[in-house]
Amino acid sequence: MSKFIDSSSPWFENLDYDWSILLNQTIIKYENQPANTPIYHQGDQAENIFIVLDGRIRLFMLTPDGKEKAISIAGKNCLLGVNRHPEDNTYFENAITASEAKIASLPYLQFENLIYHNPILVKQYVHLLQEKLRFATTYNLQLSYGSSVKRIYDAFYHLAKTYGVQNNVGTVIQITFTHQELANLIGTSRVTVANTVNDMLKNNLLKKTKGKYLVPDLNRLITG
């Protein structure tokens, strides 16, 4: 069960890749940009790819009626803008900063040329695509067969594993987020998230300390 959960996190953070060959060819596109700064929009011409150097980027799509559908959160060493529609070479999703961020950019054609002529870069690129596919497949199974409550438990597990700092009473999640942001990411309603979080607080699965969530025992989130 733990291995299954670990493989399905929507937070792609502090990835163990070395993109120095790409970075030698990049221009810093955004440096110390505040949260909610657009990087690119769904349907824009996909002229560049981006490498996250610091911070978090929120990836999402918009439905025809304007509703937002979250995809994932890209952190340090994640690539952005590699998903292009083959027919018109436009970006598949939207990318916007979820925190202050620093990002490097590289023309897409230059990226392709460097990637396909360097075995190490190809291996890393394929691995990243595999991780994204694994998440998408697992997420689809969770939406089809899992409960929204279980997805919320899993989300807090991933948040604690990715952004948590341990102390003598548990793991403190260092980033802040709203119930709506969490609901968008896992495919449920804000009310469901709020009610589930309240139940988790009552049952000591979560605690609140100085405005941040603390998880006393990660194993309890796995077992429910």
UniProtKB/TrEMBL annotation:
Identify this protein by name: Cyclic nucleotide-binding domain-containing protein
Species assigned in the record: Virgibacillus halodenitrificans
Transcription recorded as keyword: yes
Entry keywords, A to Z: Activator, DNA-binding, Transcription, Transcription regulation
Q: Which domain of life is it from?
A: Bacteria
PROSITE patterns the record matches:
CNMP_BINDING_3 (PS50042), HTH_CRP_2 (PS51063)
**One matching Pfam family:** cNMP_binding
Record-annotated HTH crp-type domain positions: 146-219
Q: Which residues form the Cyclic nucleotide-binding domain?
A: 11-132
State any single GO MF term. DNA binding
Gene Ontology terms describing biological process: regulation of DNA-templated transcription
InterPro entries linked to this entry: cNMP-bd_dom (IPR000595), cNMP-bd_dom_sf (IPR018490), HTH_CRP (IPR012318), RmlC-like_jellyroll (IPR014710), WH-like_DNA-bd_sf (IPR036388), WH_DNA-bd_sf (IPR036390)
